[in-house]
Structure formats: C-alpha cells, structure tokens
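seq as requested:
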Amino acid sequence: MAYIVSAVGRADSDAVVDPITVAVVEGVLSATQRAMTHTMEKTGRSTVYAIARDYSNAIFDWDARMVLQGEDIPTHLGSLLLATKTVARFFEGDINPGDVFFHNDPTYDGAHIPDMCMYKPVFFEDELVFWAVAKGHVIDAGGPVPGTYNPDAKEIYAEGLRIPPIRIVDRGRRREDVINLILTNVRSRANQRGDMNAQFGAVRVAEQRLTGLLERFGKETVKTACEELLDLAEEHMRGRIAKLPDGVYRSSVLAEDMGHGHGDQELRCEVEVRGDDLHVRLDAPPQLDFFINSYRSNTMSGICAALMMFTQVRPPFNEGLYRPLHVDFGPPGTMVNAAEPAPHVNSTGGAQETICDLVRSALVSIDPTNAPAGWNHTWAINIAGVDRRRNAPYLEFIVSSLVGGAGAVEGVADGWECVGSQAGLGGAQIGGAELLELLAPVIVREMSIERDSAIPGRWRGGCSVVTEIEPLDHEMTVIGWGEGAKIPSASVAGAGAPAETLALKLARGWHLRNGEVLREIDRNEIVVVLPGERYRSRAGGGGGAGDPFLRPIERVRADVLERKVSLEAARIEYGVVLDPASLEPDLGATETLREGAR
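struct tokens:
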C-alpha cells in the first residue's frame, strides 16, 4: 500500500505575505508549541510526565497538516502525521468550537495504546483554522500487567484499553462520564487524571495564543504564512534529495527475538531516489503474536526519524519536509504494517528504532557524508508493588533504565553520553535518584556511566547507564521490556569492536541477591524481586563512526581518564597502550604507544 504524507495544497487566498511576517508567524507558532510543552512539564503528575518528559506537542492547520513540529519525541511526532488526519476525518462535519477529542488506538493511526493523545480544534470567525495536539505516554493504559507492557500478550486485546477517536469535551462541556470510564480502567488514577489535566492545559494555552495570532494578523495572512512555511520546508528537503544520485538502494536489519520464540526476523527496505522525490518500500515477515509489531503510523515515525537524521535539514520543521516522501508499507498483516489483533505495545521502542535503522542504513549507503550511527535501542523496566509507607499500590517507570548512548556522526562528533533511546533522540530525561526514592519505596543503589559500553570508532558512540534498585521491605514486580540484548547499535564508516568485548556490554538485566547473580535477564519478562534483593539494568551504548585505530591518542587517553574506556579496551579496541602510572594527573606527561593497525 502506497502512502504520500501530504498533498500540496494552498489556502483559498491571493494574499501575499512578506518574509518578515512569515518569520513572525513561525516565531509565534514555535513559542506556542513551547508553551504547551512547558505547561505539561509543570503540571504533569506521573513520573513519565514530570520526570521523563515523555510527551510531545504540535500544531496542525485547517487540513490537519502539521505546521509546527515540536522538538520533542520523534516516535510521537511522526505518528501524528497520520493520526491527526484520521481523527479529523472521523469527526468531519461534526467539529465544533469548544470540542476536544481523545484517542490512542493504533487501528485508528495511534502509535501504541500507552500514548494517549488530545486534539483541540481552534476556531476563528466561525472557521476551523488550527488543531492543537498534545500527546503523552501514560504510566498505565490498563490490561493485565502494570504499566501495560505485557510480554505475554498474544493479541492487542490483552494489552490495555483501546480508545478510538472520542469526544471528551462537547462544545466546552467536559464529558465526565467518558473521562471517568477511561480513568476507571487504569491503575494510577490520580496521576493519570493529573496528566490528562496537563494535556487540557496545553491545548487551552495553544488555543489562546493561536487566537491572539489570528486577531493580530488576520486569518488570511496567517493561513498564507502557514502555506509559505510548508513550502519552505518542502524546498529544503527537495533540495537535499535532489543532490543524491538517482537509483535504488537496499538494506536489511534483524528485529531481535526477545522472548517470543520465533527467532530473529529480517526486515528489508528499498529506497529509490527519483529526482527530488524519495520512495521507500518496506518488506517484512508476517506479524507475530508478540508485542513488537508496528502499526503503520508508528512505522511512519521510524521512517521520518531516519530521514531527519540523514538529511539534517534546517528549520522550519513541519509537514512540508515529508511531501517528497512516498511510502509503501507493504500489505497489511506484517510486522511493519500490523493489523488487528496484533499485539504491539513495545512498538514505539524496539520496532520503531529498528525501522529507523533499516531506512537510515539505506540512506547512508547513498551518501555516507556525515553519516549518523545508530543509537541504543530502548531497554527499560517498570516497577510495581505496594508502598507500605502510604498503604497504597504504586507503579513507576524507571526512566534511567532506558538511558544509553547516542550514535556518533562520522566526521563530526562522538555520540552523546547517557541520553534517552533512539525513539526519543534525546528528548527523554532521567531525573534524580532521590526523586525516584521519594515516589516509590525503593533504594537506588547505583546510577552510573557504564565503562566500555560505547561502541568504538574514530568518533566513539555514547556510553550507557547502569541502574540498580532494591525494594524497601516489600515484594517488587519488575516488568522488563525492550531490546538491544543481542544486537548492538549500528555503526558506520568502519567502526566496531571485537565481538567478545562488545558482547559484554549489550543491554541486560540482572536479578541479584547478596551481590550474587541469581539470573541474567536477556529477554522480555516479569521478575519478582524480594526484600534484600536487587534488580540491575543496563541499556546499550551508541554506535561508532570510522576506524577506531584512527582515533587520536589524546582523545583515547581522555576517555580513560573520564572512566568511559578501560585500559584494556584502549589497547584492544583502539590500539593505544597507556602507562597506568602516567594517568595520575600529578605525574607529568603520558607515555603512550599505538599498536599496529589491524
């Protein structure tokens, strides 16, 4: 099935808007989006909102085209390209001032059911001009497993509450019966009500600011400026694509088997450059009875993220960027174009990231200049139990468990250390250990950079984080989900490391007692941790770029001093032999040798 993100259309106006006015309109749109994000940050209740900032905001126009893409979470924003149009079509002819709609169902182009999205139409002079959209990952969306990541789900019905497009505010009147139905089906009712109120606040702030923009400049001027911004973004992207040689380029990657028993699955991609248009065709195995299937809107997120990582275009960031993009998802019922009843909750992590790797690797084969390496894939844990301090159940997302390393960029820079996974491209935050201990009855025994976790290269990948937690006098349930335990982050331009060294630093979990490993966790499963025991989690490091034996010696030495690279790894992976005594800062110059190139 082929899909074009956006047809080129223009407002019904002959107005001409000068560049300064266009820039001012863009500035107001950007400020509005940032105000939405600031509102959610300051008023959200759950750890996913208040700490992780796992939410995104965007502004769409009268035709449900994204005119301002926030600098938030890519896995949210790409799926909104389809989701907002689907919601607008669903209510077409029955959209009124004061309405607010809500939605999460992937069969209606939601990303996955924990990502619940609010849509507010903005009217001016009795005309629908904008949509304010606020999307956030909720701590729980119901279902049999706390946190909704159910590794045992065989169907979507066993994952949580599905919400097709519904109206939760009708002409300014909140439908408390519908809101109550949603909150009754989740475990963290108070936090979830707070997060939903944060979304209400975000879309109201957007409505106020957008109405002010329309009052200041007039409807036709603002609409024409939006068209100019869409066209400018399209021009930037077409200019980048036009520089690529025409042709067909192919790639393939493996989607990890993280416990479902079907084995690693090969996904294939064909990218065709035709003038200033880009055609992407995906080929994937049939969908599985495991939660790594991706419905088409989530797949779109992975494709768009890959395109943005590769092209590195400048602002404005809006739907015009994707007008040259033509996507064939393949037939319904595959791992990348899933159909009901495929389970899918882990799709916004591993599946989206694998699709991003797939498309990016094909693009890099066309033009390896400034090639971006792969980031760590999502490997994370949720915890649940009863907090005896409050005599109440708790459920928390351990954000630091998914924090790993970013990929290096060939010829430009090392990967960032300790950032959120590729699905968020650095948008997620960790928060402090003390805050987690305040919210949940646990002790954070360790939260630190993992030495030698980055994949070596002339430009090194970023290091990952280790998190170790212990329950306070209660039985703690740990839900482990994600991937990266078998396949490292993708490297580019000849980077890499000996397999026996790299294998020690892939994503993992460990169930510990008295410092001894009871079990090593390398699959998605649920683990019960008793008082006195601990759970240790490590995400993966970022991919490298370029031959590590060409990394300057002084940079290898700096990595060793900063405890990012061990002396052994410096010797084996970079060919640099360091005198341990010379690493003491008060002992003068360093004696180093570069062993022969491989």
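Residues 189-217 form the longest helix (29 residues).
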